[in-house]
Design a protein that fits this description.
By secondary structure, this protein is α/β, with parallel strands linked by helices. The chain is 40% helix and 18% strand. It has helices spanning 3-12, 23-31, 50-63, 92-106, 115-129, 167-170, 174-181, 198-211, 249-267, 274-283, 307-320, 338-345, 365-372, 385-396, 408-417, and strands spanning 41-45, 68-71, 83-85, 88-89, 134-138, 156-159, 191-193, 215-216, 223-229, 232-237, 240-244, 291-295, 298-301, 325-330, 351-354, 379-381, 400-405. The strands form 3 sheets. It has an 8-stranded mixed β-sheet, sandwiched between helices. It has a 6-stranded mixed β-sheet with strand order 12-13-17-14-15-16, sandwiched between helices. The chain has a 3-stranded antiparallel β-sheet with strand order 9-10-11. Strand 10 and strand 11 (240-244) form a beta hairpin. The chain is globular, with a radius of gyration of 21 Å. The two termini are 26 Å apart.
Length: 421
């Protein structure tokens, strides 16, 4: 099997539509010799922040000397971004080899696995092949029936910030969605949960009590900022000082979750010294999350795609660009709450440029523009991402800035146009 053939095979499988179940992934991995049982994991679920936390924790574990796998979704530009070992993406040859092995078993199943199940099985094979000491595993959708939840007893589970997303699958209340995410909690396995509204935390508390798990919740009031600029930030948490290259107050909160997780792992026997924790956080990189991609004019790219993410972008723009004229380059998927996102972002918009992300689920830019015109600000519609980037920079001029937001798919394409690959 060639690399392009492997990608085509994965892309040809359906993503949604199958009955939510662990039955298919269980059968597939069993046929492959249960590679997941040869690995150790930190399992992360949540609506927002799980990718950033996964990147931070992976960097910390690498700094501590562990050969660390990282499994995330979706990707920004290259499929291989989804699975990495010690910061190196899976190679085309390795992907083709592992997908061929997965295809051989999947095609013999009565019920064909979904695309995400195929990708997850591929990653498990590769992580075993790479002899990982630990894998930081990000759930794809939900938790209870997510393919990643096939693992039996991780070293720790993490549940990040809960928001309203994928409500047609996970439920239309925060508590219902929290219940689905809590499905990754395993008997006797410590859990770290992002500090949030008490009704949500109560869902996790009950689940941990039922399963005999120790629950750790970071105290965000123990965070204090010492330095914060477009160059990075320095903060203290419970008396220790840390530095991050990732920007935004929300990343400090995500870092607090990673810090608490490192301490939980240390208490369980993992060797993570303070200098590894500090160095790992500072070295952590997570592209496309309020990322400075250019400075003439400043061009920020953020892949956030729901109202909570829009709030984080709004707050960061107010903090880092308080007096700057802001041109927002927006592109969204039609199945997201783009009206609410636009309402949130309008506070920091002086002008809009809109286009369509490169996805079959993209909202046509003219439909997005019809919403944005309701804010009585200039709106320009562009037929391509490349035209949108050029137009947004031109409209910003020498004294303004651009922020591209609304979709991971848009973020990847914009980064490509800006020469980030």
């Amino acid at each position: 099997m060639e690399y392009k053939e492997a990608l085509a095979y994965l892309d040809g499988a359906h993503w949604f539509g199958a009955e939510p179940s662990l039955r298919r992934i269980s059968e597939l991995l069993d046929a492959l010799g249960d590679p997941q049982k040869k690995l150790r994991f930190v399992h992360i679920a949540g609506t927002n922040g799980k990718g950033s936390c996964a990147a931070m924790l992976s960097s910390v574990l690498r700094a501590a000397g562990y050969r660390t796998g990282l499994y995330t979704s979706p990707y920004l530009y290259r499929f291989s971004e989804r699975m990495q070992v010690n910061g190196e993406e899976i190679t085309p040859d390795a992907l083709a080899r592992c997908v061929a092995a997965v295809r051989d078993k999947a095609e013999k199943m009565d019920e064909h696995p979904t695309e995400f199940e195929l990708i997850t099985a591929t990653a498990m094979l590769w992580f075993v092949e790479e002899k990982c000491d630990v894998v930081v595993l990000e759930a794809g959708l939900g938790g209870r029936f997510d393919a990643t939840n096939i693992i039996e007893s991780p070293e720790c589970t993490i549940i990040m910030n809960i928001g309203l997303d994928h409500t047609h699958i996970l439920g239309d209340t925060l508590e219902a969605i929290a219940g689905e995410k809590a499905g990754i909690i395993k008997p006797g396995v410590p859990c770290v949960a992002y500090e949030q509204a008490d009704p949500i935390l109560e869902v996790f508390r009950r689940r941990c009590t039922e399963l005999g798990c120790a629950l750790t919740v970071p105290r965000f009031d123990a965070l204090s900022v010492e330095f914060d600029s477009l160059e990075g930030q320095v903060f203290s948490y419970r008396g220790d000082q840390f530095a991050l290259s990732l920007l935004g107050a929300h990343q400090r909160r995500n870092a607090a979750v990673a810090i608490e997780t490192a301490r939980v792992l240390t208490a369980s026997g993992w060797k993570i010294e303070q200098d590894a924790l500090e160095h790992g956080l500072y070295a952590a990189s997570w592209p496309g999350r309020f990322e400075v991609c250019a400075d003439d004019p400043y061009f920020i790219v953020d892949g956030g795609h729901n109202p909570q993410c829009a709030e984080a972008v709004r707050d960061s723009l107010l903090h880092y660009f308080p007096e700057t004229r802001r041109v927002l380059l927006l592109g969204v998927l039609r199945d997201k709450d783009y009206v609410r996102m636009a309402q949130i972002l309008d506070r920091v918009a002086d002008e809009y440029v809109c286009t369509a992300p490169e996805s079959s689920r993209a909202l046509p830019p003219e439909e997005l523009a019809s919403v944005l015109r309701g804010f009585d600000k200039p709106v320009t519609v562009c037929d391509s991402v490349s035209d949108a980037v050029f137009t947004a920079k031109d409209r910003a001029g020498d004294s303004g800035m651009v922020c591209a937001a609304g979709s991971v798919y848009l973020a990847g394409s914009v980064r490509y146009q800006l020469g980030m690959y």
